[in-house]
Design a protein that fits this description.
- This protein is α+β, with helices and mostly antiparallel strands.
- The protein is about 10% helix and about 25% strand.
- It is built from six helices and 25 strands.
- The chain has a six-stranded antiparallel beta sheet, with no helix packed on it. The chain has a four-stranded antiparallel beta sheet with strand order 1-2-3-4, with no helix packed on it.
- A hairpin with a 2-residue loop joins strand 7 (about 165-175) and strand 8.
Length: about 475
């Protein structure tokens, strides 16, 4: 699994055009899409101060000579506040700033009381992976610090900081008993949200990594006026609770001002550029040659127990499969040319969007449920598409992977490649051994590769005569059927 697993729920609601859902499994499925979007990190601190307003209209400007300005601090700018309305004018553009979301009237103790019970991501991971830790901060409890909180007596969006300051959790609720999303991510990765142009959700929040910031203005792609963020302690800020139709936002600029109105922070997020891949362009996917079984196994050769049948081949045509998967692929690629999250692998980028030219290598499912593995025309990229409804408006999971130097795909939790010489595969599951579905050199043993609650499974491969020639344990992902 991605080594930044603590980010699993940090953008758990990043379902473009989808309503939020409080079901933990659905949140996890969204998080697995989001976890692939993590980036490099830095750490610093910030201090909350209070702005002073003098007279009817306060004009904030630099009061210290430029020669005394700290090294690297941006040139001072002014913002104007109308005391009667509380509205801020951005003097750089003359535009009126969208007001900050309201601070929550709830006490910190009440915020923690409401959020503690919904730390589902941590608890779910602990249950599925006994002996492992999601991070070193432990579950949210009364020792965590509420660094910023927005909302009213019912609606809540809060950021919580662990006692060791290593993890930030976001808690978003539509009512005292209705959570919308619960997230946890490393404090270092949280800080990087101001540095890279990665789409995120409104409730994710930000951290301005300089001291003395009391007001923060955020320019968002597609919006004509800047927004003011609610500033809490330690430099953490919130844009509030998302609306029902909330979509991903992309930050164009973040500015921070101190109590005198001096601009002390000005960040323009830049596209993330990962080191270029070095895989030989001539390397394509190398799948095992198909082997037709002569002896078809119906019982486990080790125990004699009956083998559960393999998952069914989806009744959908290949064209129907690619049409469905194109919908989620479009979401995956929508920010590709804008410095979005999917530009970190040139091999994946070169394959382009899913189309009918892609090979449907594997497909399973019944009714509206579908899991498919698609291979790009250049034979260098796979797209794994899992959908519970006919369109991307419903629950789905999606990922891509690129060929390695050996012509194989990196280890996947969602499917696997058939080993050489194997004609049949048996997977040991809690309910007993089951046959896997083999197709075009790939195999899968359920609607998804990872089954909820399983830490790992044993995979056994048999040759055409039913002789075992392969045995391997696979670590699993948290998933749902």
């Amino acid at each position: 699994m991605n080594n930044d697993i603590e980010h699993m729920l940090a953008t758990a609601a990043d379902d473009t055009d989808r309503p939020l859902n409080t079901d933990v499994d659905d949140l996890l499925i969204r998080a697995r899409r989001s976890v692939r979007r993590t980036r490099i990190a830095t750490v610093s601190t910030a201090v909350l101060t209070t702005a002073a307003i003098v007279g009817g209209v306060a004009t904030w400007s630099a009061t210290r000579p430029e020669s005394q300005e700290p090294a690297g601090t941006p040139t001072g700018q002014t913002i104007t506040i109308d005391v009667a309305t509380g509205r801020i004018i951005d003097n750089e553009t003359g535009k009126t700033v969208v007001p900050a979301p309201p601070a929550s009237p709830l006490s910190d103790a009440e915020v923690l009381r409401r959020c503690i019970r919904y730390d589902n991501g941590y608890q779910h991971f602990q249950h599925a992976h006994p002996g492992k830790t999601l991070d070193n901060a432990g579950p949210v409890d009364a020792r965590w610090k509420v660094v910023v909180k927005s909302g009213d007596q019912s609606v809540l969006n809060a950021l919580l900081l662990s006692p060791d300051k290593s993890v930030v959790s976001s808690c978003t609720m539509s009512s005292p008993t209705k959570p919308d999303s619960f997230a946890r991510t490393s404090a270092a990765n949280f800080t990087t949200r101001t540095q890279y142009r990665n789409p995120q959700t409104v409730q994710d929040g930000l951290r301005v990594p300089v001291s003395g910031v009391t007001r923060v203005l955020v320019d968002i792609a597609g919006e004509s006026s800047p927004r003011e963020a609610l500033v809490g302690t330690d430099g953490y800020t919130s844009l509030g609770h998302p609306s029902k139709d909330a979509k991903l936002i992309t930050l164009n600029r973040i500015r921070g001002y101190d109590s005198s109105g001096k601009k002390v922070y000005d960040e323009t997020p830049k596209p993330f550029a990962a080191p270029p891949r070095t895989v030989d362009p001539s390397v394509t996917v190398k799948t095992a040659k198909p082997v037709t079984p002569v002896v078809v196994l119906t019982k486990d050769p080790e125990t004699g127990k009956p083998l559960a049948p393999p998952p069914p081949v989806s009744p959908l045509t290949d064209e129907q499969v690619t049409t469905r998967c194109e919908g989620v692929d479009e979401i995956y690629f929508k920010d590709l040319d804008k410095g979005g999250v999917n530009t970190d692998d040139a091999v994946i980028k070169a394959a382009g969007p899913v189309s009918r030219a892609w090979q449907v290598a594997l497909k399973t499912g019944t009714g509206d449920k579908l899991t498919a593995l698609l291979i790009s025309p250049d034979q260098r990229v796979y797209a794994w598409c899992h959908m519970l409804t006919p369109t991307a408006k419903g629950a789905y999971d999606y990922t891509r992977g690129a060929v390695q130097a050996n012509g194989k795909f990196a280890h996947s939790f969602d499917f696997a490649m058939v080993p050489e010489g194997v004609a049949q595969i048996v997977v040991d599951l809690p309910n007993g051994p089951a046959r896997a579905l083999l197709s075009n050199g790939y195999f899968i043993w359920g609607l998804t590769g990872g089954n909820s609650g399983l830490k790992n499974v044993r995979v056994r491969g048999f040759d055409a005569q039913g002789k075992q020639i392969y045995s391997q344990k696979l670590q699993l992902d948290v998933d749902f059927d």
